[in-house]
Fold Chloride channel protein.
Amino acid sequence: MLALLGALCGLLSGLLMAFFYAAIYLPARYIIGTDFDTFESLPVEWRVGLSLLACIVLALVFTLLPSRLHKVGVPYVVERLNYHNGNLPLWNGVVQFFTAAIGLIGGLSIGKEGPAVHLGATLGSYLAEKAKLPQYGVETLLACGVAGAISAIFQTPLAGVLFAFEVIFLEYRQRYVLPVLLSSVVATLVSHYLIGPLDIFSIGDLSLVVLSKDLFFACFALVVLIVLLSALFLHMQKALWRLSGLSIWVRFMSVAIATSLAAVYLPEALGSGYSSLTHLLSGDVILYSLFLLIVVKTALTAFTIGLGIPGGMIGPTFIIGGLAGVQVALIFDNDFADVALFALLGMAAMMAACFQAPLTALVAIIEMTHSSEAIIPALFVVVLACLLMRVFFHQESVFVERLSYIGMSSTISPFQRYLRHHTVKPVSEDIVLLPVRVPLEQVKNLASSMVDYIAFESDDEWHLVHRISVLDALQTLDLGPQLWLVLIDDIAVMDLSLALDSNVVPLIDEPSSLESMWHWFQKTDSVEVLVALSDSSFRRVSRHRLNQFLLKSD
């Protein structure tokens, strides 16, 4: 069933991403006349006007919306996964869709990939809720939504799967792999059919990579540059998070001013930045310092995201890394093919350093460029960039750092994970469900039953008794007539409410996981409960049985 739901999630993710892509592309196509990222082709008054209008509209939207709808993006997805059982409100996803589209159309230095992750995760969470899946099913479909969204927006199916595990779950989960892979492939096919092939970068001239000392020396120089840029990107955001108490208008107008200055003096820094890198890889000559563009793009993206603009940072960091790679290639006076190679290496290193997702970065550049020539040097720069960020700057993923700043953990404990991956069925016991008045012949048949507990309803309350207690009460007939003996239509019946001292127990719907069951016992201080399962049956769950399950040794 999860595989089918994963495929459905991939189908819907592909459709949603195609719609999201159209919501950004079509208005920008009408305004700019070419690709939505080539803002430098617009007159300066248009560039400034679009950025100002986008920030004003976003500030107005967030002023009118309740504060609970302000939370969007990848950190919010991780927060809901760890603290709210993966339940993502639908309206937050709607806000993410339109606000990200407004920012991208306005030329703000953000990406569409982060919002895509939020939208895909919301879709997966919604499907899991409608299917009434247990907790591990919710997490599986959430991973399917994330992988499907990344796969559709980049058309990189394997990178989408790895992104879900490395960035969202921060671990690889084998039991989720098949549904997530299926979702990712289906989403890619849908995106390819509706949008067409996304040949974002043309690296057809990449020659055979010759491993040499000069190559690895240049790679080391690239890693140093990438680590410094990543540190600037992360530390600038962390400094800006302290300003979250300022009003939305102050923060968003500050972004509008910074973006307007870039629109006047360095328009290539606007938007995601794909066009700048594409032009460089096509051999176009730039008329200004490439290093200046790299620094401005890094600072502008960090400034925009750090002050709360609801956009993504995955795409811009990819581009910043690619531009840094081109800069290093030009410094070392390499030919055009090596410029393309170093652009790839820079993209991989920057993504790995910022998000601590080495495999995702490596596979993404291979899938996006349809080339495997850069694997060995890419592994070198990816691993080294991740290590230097951890050792010298003590930095985790920017998403992890964001959650830590607001006092939340990006992971859950092994104990919580173990509970979430199990339903209540392993700790539940079968019961015999009887009416409050039972014919004596049916009571006698309990002697051959293998079920230990009996439940009945009386006065709108549920009672639970041991089977042996019912049989013992039946034996009292040998002592003479009993108060619990009733004749109904000349049939002798036992009134269980009179015959037994039973325990009144609550009746609850089946929890999504053992974690929910554990929290229920902790909150109510009960020792046992009747659980109505999804198949309309009833079972007994006791605190003692749950403790035994948790303490047992495999």
